[in-house]
Design a protein that fits this description.
The complex is a heterodimer of chains A (110) and B (114).
Chain A (H helix, E strand, L loop, with lengths): L3 E4 L2 E5 L4 E7 L3 E9 L5 E6 L3 E5 L2 E6 L4 E6 L8 E9 L7 E2 L3 E6 L1
Parallel strand pairs in A: 2-11
Antiparallel strand pairs in A: 1-3, 3-8, 4-5, 4-9, 6-7, 7-8, 9-10, 9-11
Chain B lengths: L2 E5 L2 E4 L5 E8 L5 E8 L2 E11 L2 E4 L6 E6 L2 E6 L8 E8 L9 E2 L3 E5 L1
Parallel strand pairs in B: 2-11
Antiparallel strand pairs in B: 1-3, 3-8, 4-5, 4-9, 5-6, 7-8, 9-10, 9-11
Classes of the chains: A mainly beta (110), B mainly beta (114).
């Protein structure tokens, strides 16, 4: 069946470090989104990126649709970056419904 | 700009009691609407989605139901709650722009069934 897998499941960084989060998906997609879930549970949209590369401040994302993966880069991490990062895919023919990965729990320490 | 509201923010209900969670969207018309549940802090699961008034699709068999009485209102209900219904419920909306539609999430309702 269709699957979205994220790695690593947990990550601890020192403030100022860089990191790469990976999302693998099992089939072709119409939509690939990255979210940050803050400690209050709010899902914040980071990127809508079915293909290509986008940057927003210290964050950037790249999706290689032909190889079925997406990467989220966090540079110069800050304690406010802590939380869970999810990728979610709308698979082609899936009817505009997102399938979520299980997330990467990030903790940034001073 | 568009805004999505959910209420209540938190809810504690006894087993066997009814449930009604409400979601409304402002600043857009004819959106797609979605209900997700998140258990144990990870992994959101799609429960229901709607492309229009009165049009509901269920993704998983369960003790819950959904209704869309107005264009920008989506309600999640249960007649009798189970312990397993506890979780964090999130509503989302998207436009109908082809080929796919970026989804935006509300603040969520944290439900504890005791």
């Amino acid at each position: 069946g269709i699957q979205v897998e994220q790695s690593p499941p947990d990550l601890i960084l020192q403030e100022g470090a860089n990191s790469t989060l990976r999302c693998n998906f099992s089939d072709s997609v119409n939509n690939l989104q990255w979210f940050h879930q803050n400690p209050w549970g709010q899902l914040i949209n980071l990127f809508y990126i079915p293909s290509g590369t986008k940057q927003n401040g210290r964050l950037s994302a790249t999706t290689v649709a032909t190889e079925r993966y997406s990467l989220l880069y966090i540079s110069s991490s800050q304690t406010t970056d802590s939380g869970v990062y999810f990728c979610a895919a709308d698979f082609t023919g899936g009817g505009n419904k997102l399938t979520f990965g299980t997330g990467t729990q990030l903790k940034v320490e001073l | 700009s568009q805004t999505i509201h959910q209420w209540p923010a938190t809810l504690v209900q006894p087993v066997g009691s009814p449930l009604s969670l409400e979601c409304t969207v402002e600043g857009t018309s004819n959106p797609n609407l979605y209900w997700y549940r998140q258990a144990a802090g990870r992994g959101l699961q799609l429960l229901f989605y709607s492309v229009g008034i009165g049009q509901i699709s269920s993704e998983v068999p369960q003790n819950l139901s959904a209704s869309r009485p107005q264009d920008r209102q989506f309600i999640l209900s249960s007649k009798k709650l189970l312990l397993s219904d506890s979780g964090f419920y999130l509503c989302a909306w998207s436009t109908k722009r082809e080929p796919s539609y970026e989804q935006y999430f509300g603040p969520g309702t944290r439900l504890t069934v005791t």
